[in-house]
Amino acid sequence: MKLASLLGHVHELLALVADGERPADLVLDGFFRARRYLGSRDRRFVSETSFGVLRHRRRAEALVEAALLEVGDRPLAEDFRLLVITAYLVAIAGVEVSPEAVAEKLKDWRLKEPLPDILERLRTVALAEPAGAAARLGLRHSFPDWMAERFIALLGEEEALRLAAALNQPAPLCLRVNTLRATREACREALAAEGVASAPTALSPWGLVLERRVNLPGLDSFRRGLFEVQDEASQIVALLVDAAPGQRVLDACAGSGGKSLALAAAMEDRGMVVAADVSEARLRPLAQRAARAGATCVRPRLVGSLYELTAEGAIYDRVLVDAPCSLTGTLRRNPGLKWTLSETAVAEAAARQLSILEEVASLLKPGGRLVYATCSMLREEDEDVVAAFLARHGEFTLTPPAEVRAKLGLGGIAAGDTLRLWPHRHGTDGFYAAVLARN
Q1: Are strands 207-210 and 198-200 parallel, antiparallel or unpaired?
Q2: What is the four-CA torsion angle of 128, 132, 136, 142, rounded to 10 degrees?
Q3: 235 near 207, Cβ under 8 Å?
Q4: 322 near 259, Cβ under 8 Å?
Q5: Which of 108, 128, 148 is the last residue of a domain?
Q6: CATH no. for residue 246?
Q7: Beta strand 364-374 with 431-438: parallel, antiparallel or unpaired?
Q8: 3-state DSSP call for residue 370?
Q9: Would you list the DSSP string of 336-359?
Q10: DSSP assigned state of 122
Q11: Residue ranges of the alpha helices (H) in 56-110?
Q12: C-beta separation of 295 from 251 below 8 A
């Protein structure tokens, strides 16, 4: 397909991402399903360019602003977005783009004549570093200032820059081997027989990381339930629950049940895992996934509120609260979230997280373990929520997750009172987890 047409497809896809509330990867899937005429090379260009623009949007926009200083009026929104795509390609990705290809998609004829000069300025313009650590990080790695401020508060400027750079890299494709069906080595051999190369994950004893992206549902090993797609950090959180055969376990915010299935495997499919969620749409795939995995102990449970379980008098040995959150730990996968997430949404998420902990507090038996986890890297949703919960519930104590360190030799990742996993340190999604014991 001609470059001009590919630029048009990228422009259209980014407009859909900007206009909707779904993550960019889901928008991309639907976009390609509706355009099956696109070949594999064209799909790769559209997806890589679109995600590249989302990762580097702020810097690309600044380059366009600088390149247009001599043009005069700001272009139409459509043309500005097209120039941002072009700036990403020529100045950040190093792709050669001809003026003719861009001009073919421009709506404003006034830009077409100076376009060669604009493209040259995009390649050569030097952006001045702004004052202030957050603004410097934000411009260099394309993050909103408020998010950069939080990263710096957690890590300091130097390490926050490394985190931001890591968040702008694509995430690896990671699998959790289903130990109800196969060992990790047996699963790896089955994948290799289908032409899929993999390597053991560095931290999780259940994990494999693939060397390239493949159509997983088309694999016989997938249909046989040998694995599930699950980031390594998410696997480590399931390990923290330390669920044992014969126990009653509650996955309080189960979603589509990835951690519920991991818990069932850890329990050797003996006992009960209640996978509760308030969303029927999120919970719906779990029954099929559990059947494929051979996890008969998983019980999907649609609830209006977790208080429904309290009213039934159910008591659990383990409770996992993988709370709905800002998802900042998943920015490698969903870079468009940078531009849609707000500080208000973070505050609302933190309030909801504390409410969920309140709902499940009485469901844990004395001596039991509650694991609170988020895929957020923001203190408001992590340490602050746990501190607020402990201040209200003297019957709970924070237990350092030393068991993970001792069992798996994970060293410093579990050295403190809570667990934090970072993309730039551990190669995983950003995750937080706290282990709470009921006295």
Answers
A1: antiparallel
A2: -120
A3: yes
A4: yes
A5: 128
A6: 3.40.50.150
A7: antiparallel
A8: strand
A9: THHHH--HHHHHHHHHHHHHHHHH
A10: H
A11: 57-67, 77-87, 99-103
A12: no
The first and second tokens of residue 403, run together, are 């068991």
pLDDT along the chain (439 residues), means of 10: 94 88 86 93 95 97 90 82 96 94 89 90 91 96 98 96 97 97 98 97 95 92 97 93 96 96 98 96 96 98 90 91 96 93 96 96 95 97 98 94 66 73 94 94
274 lies in some domain: yes
**Tokens at 299, concatenated:** 């019980």
Nearest to 326 by CA among 376, 398, 266: 376
Q: Tokens 């330390």 belong to which residue?
A: 242
The amino acid that residue 62 corresponds to is A
Residue 202 lies in a domain: no
pTM: 0.93
* Residue 22: C-alpha distances to residues 98, 141, 244, 280, 338 (Å): 33, 23, 36, 17, 13
User: Count of CB atoms within 10 A of residue 132's CB?
Assistant: 13
Domain tally for the chain?
A: 2
Residues 317 and 366: their CA atoms lie apart, in Å, by 8
CATH of the domain at 76: 1.10.940
The alpha carbon torsion through 40, 141, 334, 352 (nearest 10 deg) reads 180
